[in-house]
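New to this. Look over this protein:
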Amino acid sequence: MSFWHTTKEKVLQAAWKKPMYVQNKRVFFDHDYATEVQQKRKDYAPIKKVLKENQIRFQTPLTKMRIHFDTGAVTFSDPSAAAAELEKRGFSVGPVRVRKSAEHNAETLAKLLPWRTAGTRRIGTDYQESIREKLQGFRMHNPEDTS
């Protein structure tokens, strides 16, 4: 581990042990996650609240949630699945927001991809024949070739 990593961990551990306040407002410390990860983690907030109120142990590794039930630990990839499981077990969670993954968003992909469609695809014998004629111009002359 690097010096900075161990220092960061020590600061976070100390901050998590005792609540800190600045101008009578509580300040929270956490790891420096990417914006998308932070947003996905926020979606678990209503579920975390219910779990804390009922003293049920849980963990939130990045964008997932692991809940330690009496029957064993269960890991969820999205908040709606975790909320549904809690509802099934008799806990009221309320509305849970689920964000769509950027990897399935066509608009985001279009912005990220460097290529653009040149136009409609040309199909047909006329187009294929014109390509064949253009390629003939690049063919090396062979006196025995009669085609």
Summary: The two ends are 71 Å apart (CA to CA). Residues 1-32 form one domain.
